[in-house]
Amino acid sequence: MPRAIRGVLIECEPAIKSILVHIDSNELKNDAIIEDLDDTRLVVKEQMVKTLKSRLNEKLKETYRPEQPLEDSD
Amino acid sequence: MASAVPSSFMLSEYLEKLPGATFRKLYQQPSTAFAIFRRMLPPLAKVYVQALLYMSTPFSVKDLNVWVRPEGETASKRAIGILRSLHIVQVGQPDKTRPQEIQLTANFKRSLRLALEGGGSHNSFGVPSTLPVDPQIDIAFLDVWAGRIWQDILYYVVNSVPIRTDNRAGSSGYSAHGGPRAAVRELLLMGGLVQRRDGGAVQISEHGFNFLLQEANAQVWTLLLLWLEAADRSRAAGQPGTNLDNVEMLSFLFMLASLELGHAYDTSALTETRRNMLPALADFGLIYIDPRNRDQYFPTRLATTLTSSSSALRSVSASLDAATKKTPGDAGSLGTNPAATDENGGIVVETNYRLYAYTSSPLQIAILNLFSRLNMRWPNMVSARLTRESVREAIADGITANQIISYLAAHAHPQMVRQAAAKGTPVLPPTVVDQIRLWQLESERMRTTPGFLFKDFDSLDEYVDMSKYAEEIGVLVWKNDRRRIFFVSKVEQLRDWLRARKKGV
């Protein structure tokens, strides 16, 4: 009998995927990822999607340069 | 939840979770069988139902497959899959003595025949009231009334002060309270469309955003499904065992959808459960009960179009829109309707990301506030600006770039529309449209699909057969033949398939 595991399929760029794998192994004790499918796909636990998303955004914020507000008279 | 889910999809999700016994009870009502047939089935599935309806004996699946061209096989399997998940057809297991057979389930068949032939004394399509009807209650009155109730609910969701206007509907005792009833507010809170903040005030949630940007008909279904689920839960907590109410509620909704707008119907012909539902339905604006004559109820346009096709939905919002326009001092305030093109709701979008909206409706201003920074407000106009942050926040709240763009395009100022038509250019400045999409790409780093991962197959055959079946019924999302794993969005039919296969071997 095959096994069916409930989860959420995540599709993203390879760079983002490697950040996710990093977060999973360093910060979440390998508790989020169920199966590493290929370069752009992962299956993760349903309840961990939110955590992963917010951690990813934190990581990306470090690389983000805030935009300069346009000078004008609104 | 994915954004902008069509209403019939949400309804089918709810229905698919129901057990077979519930379906058997539901299909005892001809109006239910008819509504499901009309609303929930794709054209091919309808053809199959029509073909099987008057067959006296089960039909062999092999003969049915003769009708299908090779290239249409997937579509055919999908149609039969839908029919099975709604418990409309039974497909037997093939064994040595008999070929595999397909037939309509007994209750559905009987009820749909009754609905088409008009026989029986089931009162399933409502009993018209024989009492005299107040001539004031005409279709226009019902439209105004339903439009106002629905608008109040939307106002509440965007968390703005309900506008009080003196119109005809106000004289029926409705204006005694501002905003929707406590029960409706509870429901919105429980369904997660609004959230309670620390101070006790409520705030719109992620689902609420999507709710606001849906079409009126989809909104009605969202609310009704929340209501059904709430009733399910309270019953599970209170007296378990009886599942009858669930069936009664659903079939009453389907019955309402088959009634005729502008006619009065007799409340005394209803069962007690259904009579108890009437006040709640009036709170939603689906029916109108004259306070002076409680023996009659009038379905409104929100109710009678529940099961009609999508083209009719647009006419709902259009007619609601027309209804609100007639209301003095409240013109164009039904801001979520894409059909609103009156001067009062005009939005001007400039290439420098500034917005000017000629409106005084708190609903429309609140919606603009969801995805732009408001700068100033004048008596008849607000100015705002689209920024990276404002759009990103909106996207984080579950609004999509396309929803923002289509909202702006649908509410564009007539002057913008006219100029664009004269020059042959798009209504919105392309730079702004592109930038909104880019902002979305920037913040959408991953695409998620909930579902099930299948792995650890016993043999290659098992993997190949099962992934092929998953593909045919349209649930396969991803597969890898080398590793023998695949991912599907739904599991119920595959589980049945596995069980059947196990028996067959």
UniProtKB/TrEMBL annotation, chain A:
Pfam families: Tfb5. InterPro entries: TFB5-like_sf, TFIIH_TTDA/Tfb5. It is found in: Nucleus. Keywords: DNA damage, DNA repair, Nucleus, Transcription, Transcription regulation. GO terms for cellular component: transcription factor TFIIH core complex; transcription factor TFIIH holo complex. One of its GO terms (biological process) is transcription initiation at RNA polymerase II promoter. The keyword Nucleus applies. Belongs to the TFB5 family. Component of the 7-subunit TFIIH core complex. Component of the general transcription and DNA repair factor IIH (TFIIH) core complex, which is involved in general and transcription-coupled nucleotide excision repair (NER) of damaged DNA and, when complexed to TFIIK, in RNA transcription by RNA polymerase II. In NER, TFIIH acts by opening DNA around the lesion to allow the excision of the damaged oligonucleotide and its replacement by a new DNA fragment. In transcription, TFIIH has an essential role in transcription initiation. PANTHER family: GENERAL TRANSCRIPTION FACTOR IIH SUBUNIT 5 (PTHR28580:SF1). This is General transcription and DNA repair factor IIH subunit TFB5. The lineage of its organism: Eukaryota, Fungi, Dikarya, Ascomycota, Pezizomycotina.
UniProtKB/TrEMBL annotation, chain B:
InterPro entries: Tfb2_C, TFIIH_p52/Tfb2. It is found in: Nucleus. GO terms for molecular function: ATPase activator activity; double-stranded DNA binding. The keyword Cytoplasm does not apply. Residues 434-499 form the Transcription factor Tfb2 C-terminal domain. Its main location: nucleus. GO terms for biological process: nucleotide-excision repair; transcription by RNA polymerase II. GO terms for cellular component: transcription factor TFIIH core complex; transcription factor TFIIH holo complex. Keywords: DNA damage, DNA repair, Nucleus, Transcription, Transcription regulation. The keyword Nucleus applies. It holds the Pfam family Tfb2. PANTHER family: GENERAL TRANSCRIPTION FACTOR IIH SUBUNIT 4, TFIIH, POLYPEPTIDE 4. Component of the general transcription and DNA repair factor IIH (TFIIH) core complex which is involved in general and transcription-coupled nucleotide excision repair (NER) of damaged DNA. Belongs to the TFB2 family. This is RNA polymerase II transcription factor B subunit 2. It comes from Podospora fimiseda.
